[in-house]
Amino acid sequence: MEAELRPQEERSHAPVVGLSLCDSAPLLWRLQDLKAVRSEGLVGALLGSLPRTPRQNVRLGRPLLLLPEEERLLAERRGAAALPARNQEVAGGELQEHFAEEQQRSFEEQSVLALEDRKSALVRAMASSSGSDPGSDEVLQRRLLDLEQNFSFPRSALAVQLSTARAGLSHCPEARAFLEADWPIRAQHCPRREARFQVFRDLRGRGFFLTSAGKFGGDFLVYPGDPLRFHAHFIAVCLALDESICLLDVLCVARLGSNVKKTVLLCSPAPDGPVRYTSLRWSGMV
């Protein structure tokens, strides 16, 4: 059956969003660019680690990696261009300075915590060895004072967080200069890529939010609203109108959609017409 989708008006023109390129992957570093992209309903994927929350990869920060379809739609609606090399170097210098400040703050905090751990260990050791010796308190205080005056936390013991979401990203000026690409970043000659973009633009124009659906066996996850507030309702699979589909593939994707409580949406852009949608839902046989 045909899926019911809501229309949405096109947005007006706005200032150009600056992209930093890494191996032709569009990354957004500036806060104003992230806000501008979010106002367009484009989600992307955060890749950067948070310096104050080490050893975790659940909550991530800048930069924001855009899907190819998000990048192209952004260029059409709002305008996007690669940042000049001078601006990229300035942004990189600011980020390095901020990182150094955060690392120094983290080092100071970890030094205090390490000293407290050493004091606690010393108190436990003295309590277990001295028993009820009346002079033990005086000895303990002297040792604690000596520890506090001579304690040194080595830089090599500093715990830092490394981003584990995506490997191979390098933001040094030399790497950016080597990987720099001119706009447009990607040539749009692949039929499947063109079909994906037509579907992405149509669904986004109807008010839906989209993210990648690689782990669900589709092209996009389709949300009725902001992904921070809603679960995805559809798994979009982009197909040409004249493309044949194996019946086993249809059964597999329909069963997968049923298991994750989502409706599979077959999306077929017409050459000179609207995108056609067909929903699949697994149901038992009586």
Automatic annotation (TrEMBL):
InterPro entries: tRNA_endonuc-like_dom_sf (IPR011856), tRNA_intron_Endo_cat-like_sf (IPR036167), tRNA_intron_Endonuc_cat-like (IPR006677), tRNA_splic (IPR006676), TSEN34 (IPR016690), TSEN34_N (IPR059049). Its EC number is 4.6.1.16. The active site is at Y223, H231, K262. Keywords: Lyase, mRNA processing, Nucleus, tRNA processing. Signal peptide: none annotated. GO terms for molecular function: nucleic acid binding; tRNA-intron lyase activity. Residues 18-81 form the TSEN34 N-terminal domain. Its main location: nucleus. GO terms for cellular component: nucleolus; tRNA-intron endonuclease complex. Residues 195-277 form the tRNA intron endonuclease catalytic domain. It comes from the Eukaryota. Constitutes one of the two catalytic subunit of the tRNA-splicing endonuclease complex, a complex responsible for identification and cleavage of the splice sites in pre-tRNA. It cleaves pre-tRNA at the 5'- and 3'-splice sites to release the intron. The products are an intron and two tRNA half-molecules bearing 2',3'-cyclic phosphate and 5'-OH termini. There are no conserved sequences at the splice sites, but the intron is invariably located at the same site in the gene, placing the splice sites an invariant distance from the constant structural features of the tRNA body. Belongs to the tRNA-intron endonuclease family. tRNA splicing endonuclease is a heterotetramer composed of TSEN2, TSEN15, TSEN34/LENG5 and TSEN54. tRNA splicing endonuclease complex also contains proteins of the pre-mRNA 3'-end processing machinery such as CLP1, CPSF1, CPSF4 and CSTF2. This is tRNA-splicing endonuclease subunit Sen34. The lineage of its organism: Eukaryota, Metazoa, Chordata, Craniata, Vertebrata.
